[in-house]
């Protein structure tokens, strides 16, 4: 029984978490021996056995883009996604594709009106438009998209013992061309237009445009790692887990339903706080953002983090991405959401035959109240409800919890090696400030801007480790520790498993028709919980 667990806010801006360090975790939430050796062993293997440790003492810049192969090839595993990315990483198509199906497929949204801070004109982009329409007409037709990194604006840039890093908050305009490809057509590297913040375009010189895209990808790396990945899967899942232990008895059906989906989450977060985002952690060496900047960034992200923002269909609708072409994250995610929602509905309706039973379930009401008031510090309940009044509300709530811990985490975690191993594609940091004029950048400037050898090696080892499945992984729908004894629930679990098998088969069939399949949301590659 873990009702005695306490909340603590370990860092300003963060949601609350379990009040315990890694070494002091309760036995019930610690890694088992297989998982523990897996996590530590993967990083040591890639750093030591692959020879990356020999590069860690080097800090000098690479001389050429192809020099990055010197570290990349030592642990390269043949993979179609990675092959395509390496070959086409600098094309506008591959740049745009990653907004839809890369590690961070949640930043892009339909552009209904150009913001005043982004003064793109038709004359600037007419060479990129293919339908004989004006920019305004393309916007009205729904062919223009935008990715705005305003959340990074003004954050302090990191400085290590070896390097000064730089940070900016770019805005990128994208276009759905006649091939149904989403491609960039304009990039501004700050939130403040003016003479020192030009709008970069595809017909600028090749190095200007290459570097502008790198700045967007670097900004995306940092937002992905800290907001999309850390906050919106890891930390929020821990909030649900701690509240579950504090408020639900082990015999409660919702405890039984959720417990497979919080397995190892407290433990992996404790390890991440110590080894990845601690003062001397990996992120302090590879990120463009200071520790204080990370606190500010998560504080900003917390302002818009709501239960509805964890509900997959609502997030797609909020960004008006229902009809965006080749958005496999959306297509597969909707199938998984529906499957989880159907399963949760089947289970809840077994135990609750009326809305009144939900209202009178003290443990459920205390659970959601604990999440809101204490975990998320949402005293008014504006973002996370403090009570649930209907079965439908309970079903949506639990669907969001399970989807976040399983599918959403898989979508934003297991592609990291595919998209980040080739360092120029998504630099974790930038060592020179963004250009303030056009035609002042050459390849040498770009190489001096990109991460150095030491940083690149640490990034490579980290994303390799974070992209590994563990031994004896428990994938979505696999419940070897059967917590339920009721035949009706066991039947619901079998039904859920069959539905997931059908989804897996459909995704496999669709991927065969693609040059670069999307597999991160295939149920047979979605672990039950945030455990890496």
Distinctive features:
single chain; 532 residues; mainly alpha; Lipoxygenase-1, domain 5; 5-stranded antiparallel beta sheet; two-stranded antiparallel sheet; 20 helices; globular
In short:
This protein has 532 residues and is mainly alpha-helical. It is built from 20 helices and seven strands. It has one domain (26-525): Lipoxygenase-1, domain 5 (Up-down Bundle).
- Largest sheet geometry: 5 strands, antiparallel
The ordered H/E elements are: EEHHHHEHHEEEEHHHHHHHHHHHHHH
Question: How many structural domains can be distinguished in the coordinates?
Answer: 1
CATH topology (level 3) name: Lipoxygenase-1, domain 5
Mean pLDDT: 92
- Top CATH class: Mainly Alpha
User: What structural category arises from helix and sheet content?
Assistant: mainly alpha
Provide the helix percentage. Answer: 40-55%
Any guess at the CATH architecture? Up-down Bundle
Question: Which parts are unreliable, with pLDDT below 50 for 5 consecutive residues or more?
Answer: none
Cα-based radius of gyration, to the nearest Å = 23 Å
Strand neighbour order, sheet with most strands: 3-4-5-6-7
Beta strands, count: 7
First-residue to last-residue Cα separation: 25 Å
> What is the number of helices?
20
* Net shape: globular
- Strand portion, in percent? under 5%
How would you name the CATH homologous superfamily? Lipoxygenase-1, Domain 5
């Amino acid at each position: 029984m873990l009702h005695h667990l306490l909340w603590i806010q370990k860092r300003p801006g963060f949601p609350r978490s379990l009040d315990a360090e890694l070494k002091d975790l309760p036995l019930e939430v610690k890694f088992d021996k297989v998982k523990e050796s897996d996590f530590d062993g993967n990083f040591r293997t890639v750093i030591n056995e692959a020879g990356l440790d020999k590069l860690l003492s080097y800090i000098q810049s690479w001389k050429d883009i192809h020099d990055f192969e010197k570290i990349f090839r030592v642990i390269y595993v043949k993979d179609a996604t990675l092959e395509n990315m390496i070959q086409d990483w600098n094309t506008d198509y591959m740049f745009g594709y990653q907004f839809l199906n890369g590690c961070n497929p949640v930043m892009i949204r339909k552009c209904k009106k150009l913001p005043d801070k982004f003064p793109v004109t038709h004359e600037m982009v007419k060479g990129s438009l293919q339908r004989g329409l004006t920019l305004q007409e393309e916007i009205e037709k729904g062919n223009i998209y935008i990715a705005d990194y305003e959340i990074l604006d003004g954050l302090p840039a990191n400085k290590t013992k070896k390097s000064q890093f730089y940070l900016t908050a770019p805005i990128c305009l994208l276009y759905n061309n006649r091939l149904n490809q989403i491609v960039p057509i304009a990039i501004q590297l700050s939130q403040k237009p003016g003479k020192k913040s030009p709008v970069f375009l595809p017909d600028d010189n090749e190095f200007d445009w290459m570097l502008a895209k790198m700045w967007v990808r670097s900004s995306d790396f940092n937002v992905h790692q800290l907001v999309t990945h850390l906050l919106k899967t890891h930390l929020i899942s821990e909030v649900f887990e701690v509240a579950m232990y504090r408020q639900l008895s082990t015999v409660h059906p919702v405890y039984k339903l959720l417990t497979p989906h919080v397995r190892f989450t407290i433990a992996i977060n404790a390890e991440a706080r110590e080894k990845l985002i601690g003062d001397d952690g990996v992120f302090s060496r590879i990120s463009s953002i200071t520790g204080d900047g990370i606190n500010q960034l998560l504080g900003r992200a917390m302002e818009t983090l709501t239960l509805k923002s964890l509900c997959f269909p609502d997030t797609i609708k909020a960004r008006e991405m229902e009809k965006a072409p080749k958005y496999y994250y959306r297509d597969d995610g909707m199938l998984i959401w529906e499957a989880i929602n159907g399963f949760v509905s089947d289970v809840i309706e077994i135990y609750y035959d009326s809305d009144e039973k939900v209202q009178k379930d003290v443990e459920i009401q205390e659970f959601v109240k604990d999440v809101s008031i204490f975990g998320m510090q949402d005293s008014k309940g504006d973002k996370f409800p403090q009570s649930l009044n209907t079965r439908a509300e309970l079903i949506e709530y639990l669907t969001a919890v399970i989807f976040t811990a399983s599918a959403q985490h898989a979508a934003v975690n297991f592609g990291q090696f595919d998209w980040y191993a080739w360092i120029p594609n998504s630099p974790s940091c930038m060592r020179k400030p963004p250009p303030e004029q056009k035609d002042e950048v050459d390849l040498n400037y770009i190489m001096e801007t990109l991460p150095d050898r030491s940083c690149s090696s640490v990034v490579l080892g980290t994303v390799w480790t974070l992209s590994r499945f563990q031994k004896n992984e428990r994938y979505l729908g696999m419940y070897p520790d059967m917590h339920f004894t009721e035949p009706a629930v066991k039947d619901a679990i079998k039904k859920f498993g069959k539905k997931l098998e059908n989804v897996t088969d459909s995704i496999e069939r669709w991927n065969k028709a693609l040059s670069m399949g999307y597999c991160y949301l295939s149920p047979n590659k979605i672990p039950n919980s945030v455990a890496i």
